[in-house]
Amino acid sequence: MKINVVGGGLAGVEAAWKIANAGFEVTLIEAKPLAYSPAHTSPLLAELVCSNSLKSNDVYGNACGLLKEEMRLLGSLTMQAAEVSRVPAGGALAVDRESFSSFITEKIGNHPNITVKEELVERIPSEGITVIATGPLTQGALADEISELLGGLHFYDASAPIVSKESVDWEKTFVADRYNKGTGDYVNCPMNREEYEAFVEGLRTAERALVHEFDKREIFDGCMPVEVMASRGKDTLRFGMLKPVGLYDKDGKRPYAVLQLRKEDKNGTSYNLVGCQTNLKFPEQKRVFGIIPALRNAEFLRYGVMHRNTYLPQGSLSYDYSCKKRDNLYFAGQITGVEGYVESAMSGLLVGLQIVRRLSGQEPLKLDGNTVCGALSDYVSTLHDDFQPMNANYGILNPIEERDKEKKRRMMAERSLAVIREIGDIT
Fold first, then answer.
1. In angstroms, rounded to a whole number, what is the distance separating the alpha carbons of residues 309 and 301?
2. What's the whole-number mean pLDDT along residues 297-326?
3. CB within 8 A of 268, min separation 6: which ones?
4. Helices 193-205 and 282-289 sit at what angle, rounded to 10 degrees?
5. Is the CB of residue 394 less than 8 Å from the CB of residue 376?
């Protein structure tokens, strides 16, 4: 049977990898380099367009960390790539973008059962099985056909700026991880009260890009622009991404506020402004972030941008990510309503797993809220009063009666991993 995977992002490559490794031939169709979305610039597969962080790597204390371990047990290509391209990031799993994407591009390109085809797909293939993994920026004729079939919704997503190492004033920084948990992977840019209030005022009054399309109701909280957060109150940032809790400067004092920088590449030549997704115009970004003493002469290697993200309406998908209106059509990635790099890759991995079972004459695998991947699958395939794109979190997992939070999370992790290990034997 002909199998097409449309889209070479994290979800698409995971689906193709899983199917091909099971001995089935698959065609991976990618628009780049023939066409690029507003957020993509690299011809490589699995391009990371926002942060270079895959978030926490803590299996027993963080839901996204647990999801990563579930994926490792299921043979995730994303997790393999992350291990060979990782850069220091304390308790988080961060990667060198180019190394990460290059690893995946090489693995996919050299797989004997995968044919990579460069083509801008404008119609959903009707023959065989098709996986649509075109991402949250799906546009053009293909988006129109999906909308005609299912309808569509959208929200906005933003990415943070990146600055060069040489342009940071290192005399006005200190290196430390919060509560000393880590190996000193974060560069901290402290601010006193006057500097912080000037920065907040700068964010509140700066000119934004695409203001005419801006609608606060369409912004996903996990990617909220820093200027929107600043508009919610003068202390919002100081209790959020700029909180100084657990950090002490060179004199042993806690700053009034701290903006953190994290390595963007293995060599540490560029740094990401952690949590500072923004929709400000480029000159305004340079001016406003320049209010922070350590960044007064910062060279911006990439400015933050905001772009529209599209996802399917509720009720479109079954729990195995197949389309209810077209049996041979599957969707994977952020277009399904999962949010985040790891979550997107996970959905592609599960789609690949479900297709392999289908082609092998097996019933679809029903995962539930005992695992993070199962809970996310349930979330995007069921109806909600107020649907929002969903990250991995403990709130969607089946509860466990235990008052001690750390013990409870460990119990959830152990339960989850036991289930996934059993799945590994029946895929």
1. 24
2. 89
3. 87, 165
4. 170
5. no
Count of structural domains within the chain: 2
Is a pLDDT exceeding 60 seen at residue 38?
Answer: yes
Model confidence pLDDT, tens digit, residues 316-349 = 999 999 999 999 999 999 999 998 899 999 999 9
Average pLDDT over residues 186-190: 96
Which candidate, 352, 345, 329, places its Cα nearest to that of 26? Answer: 352
Instruction: Name which of 290, 273, 274, 288 is nearest 207 in CA terms.
Output: 288
Same domain, 33 and 137: yes
Render pLDDT for 40-52 as a digit per residue (tens, 0 to 9): 778 899 999 878 8
Please tell me whether residue 117 adopts helix, strand or coil conformation.
strand
Q: Which amino acid would we find at residue 264? A: E
Closest C-alpha among 309, 331, 308 to residue 319: 331
For the chain, the residue count is 427
310 pLDDT more than 50: yes
Of 219, 250, 225, nearest to 240 by C-alpha is 225
Are 314 and 408 in the same domain?
A: yes
Nearest CA to 249 among 304, 147, 174?
174
CATH of the domain at 42: 3.50.50.60
Alpha carbon 354 to chain centroid distance?
22
The average confidence (pLDDT) of the chain is: 90
Same domain? 130 vs 184: no
- Structural tokens at position 117: 């085809």
- Distance, in Å, from the CA atom of 128 to the CA atom of 136, rounded to the nearest integer, reads 24
pTM as predicted: 0.79
Instruction: Identify the domain containing residue 360 by its residue range.
Output: 3-156+309-423
How confident is the model over 133-182, as pLDDT tens digits? 998 878 889 989 999 999 876 666 678 899 999 899 999 999 998 888 77
Give the pair of three-digit tokens for residue 107: 């693995």
According to DSSP, the residues that pair with 117 across neighbouring strands are 29
Dihedral angle at the C-alpha atoms of 329, 332, 338, 341, nearest 10 degrees?
Answer: -170
**DSSP letter for each residue of 236-291:** TTTTTTT--TT---TTS---SEEEEEEESSTT--EEEETT----B-HHHHHHHHTT
Burial profile 92-125: b = 16 or more Cβ within 10 angstroms, e = fewer: bbbbbbbbbbbbbbebbeebeebebeeeebeebb
Tokens linked to 156: 């906005």
Name which residue leads in pLDDT, 415 or 266.
Answer: 415
Interhelix angle for 77-85 vs 341-359, to 10°?
A: 140
Cα 417 off chain centre by: 22
- Rounded Cα distance, 406 and 60, in Å: 8
